[in-house]
Design brief:
Blueprint: H1 4-17, E1 23-28, H2 40-48, E2 57-59, E3 62-67, E4 79-84, E5 89-94, E6 104-110, E7 116-121, E8 127-134, E9 137-138, H3 155-164, H4 169-174, H5 184-194, H6 207-226, E10 268-272, E11 275-279
Antiparallel strand pairs: 1-6, 2-3, 3-4, 4-8, 5-7, 6-7, 8-9, 10-11
Helix pairs in contact: 1-6, 3-6, 5-6
The chain binds a DNA duplex (16 and 16 nucleotides) through loops.
DNA sequence: CGAGTACCCTGTTGGC
DNA sequence: TGCCAACAGGGTACTC
């Protein structure tokens, strides 16, 4: 289940393997994969044919490949192929003729007859679309906040926005309009680092504690990124089809009943937002001021 | 508009 | 062994 660091690894792979190449043909083998594309699968393919992909960008977990205008490779991108990997999506670079993956959804062939780009997605929560760029950002991504790894991310603005909310801290961490790219795993790890409970009320959270949790979220992401992108199940594979590494040490996520790395208390799992939350009952006690 | 919930999807896991 | 419910979960659409 790719989170931001994994998506960044995929972006880097795409920049290396796909940027500068011209699309010869697109085959959609599962229409659900392009359900966000207004014109349907035939229109999706038609809009890509002959277009040159100029790079690879990302905000949070959204990835996009800007395309040179119909005028040719030199014209300014005004559209992009937008991708979201969902829970199980992969973007693979594969030699033409290599066997189709079981869950192959979209295939891009290029005019140089080089490696294909393949979108593979078992659970089809992810998808692709051709979208307009507005100030360089896909229109469907405009409502998503910058992510903590973005150089223009404003920590103090995030702290202020967080404290204007009247909700629980984890819910706010997962709110992609405040800050994008923080998923369930990273939220739990950041809360553990900051020694805060998922239900801590946001509106009364002291600013230094708010800064602490954002610093922790960023630190966990940077650590994962430096390790080459983490992966927590076999569904995630990077752009070249190599498995991500599996040995990164998580402190709480998925560790029910195991000892806390700080204090030895046994990690507990709780249901919240129809998801699992993991915490140390000693380091992250239930706050007096709780919301969820 | 802010807050909170249901749903989408399918392969895997675990209880009985 | 087989069956079925629970689970994984980001984003959207929806209600209140």
């Amino acid at each position: 289940m790719p989170e931001l660091p994994e998506v960044e690894v995929v972006r880097r792979g795409l920049a290396r393997w796909v940027a500068g190449r011209t699309v010869a043909a697109v085959e959609v083998t599962h229409p659900r994969a392009v359900r966000r594309h207004p014109g349907g699968d035939a229109d999706f393919a038609a809009r890509l044919r002959g277009r040159t992909l100029t790079g690879a960008s990302r905000r949070g977990k959204y990835l996009w490949l800007p395309m040179a205008g119909p005028g040719g490779p030199g014209s300014q991108p005004d559209e992009a192929v937008l991708a979201h990997l969902g829970m199980s999506g992969q973007l693979l670079v594969r030699p033409p003729g290599s066997p189709d993956e079981t869950h192959l959804r979209v295939r891009f062939a290029f005019t140089d007859d080089g490696p294909e780009l393949r979108f593979v997605d078992q659970r089809t929560f992810g998808g692709l679309a051709v979208v307009d760029l507005v100030d360089g950002v896909p229109e469907p991504v405009a409502h998503i906040g910058r992510d903590p790894l973005d150089p223009d991310f404003d920590d103090e603005a995030w702290v202020a926005a967080l404290r204007r909310r009247r909700t629980g801290l984890k819910r706010a961490l997962l709110d992609q309009s405040l800050a994008s790219g923080i998923g369930n795993i990273y939220a739990d790890e950041a809360l553990w680092q900051a020694r805060l409970h998922w239900a801590r009320a946001t509106d009364t959270l002291p600013k230094p504690k708010a800064r602490l949790v954002m610093d922790a979220a960023r630190a966990v992401m940077v650590e994962a990124l430096e390790a080459g992108g983490t992966s927590f199940d076999s569904l995630y594979v990077n752009v070249n089809g190599e498995s991500g590494y599996f040995d990164r040490r998580l402190h709480v996520y998925g560790r029910t009943g195991e000892p806390c790395d700080r204090c030895g208390s046994l990690i507990v799992r709780e249901a919240f937002m129809n998801r699992s939350s993991f915490r140390c009952p000693h380091c992250q006690p239930r706050p007096r001021q709780a919301r969820w």
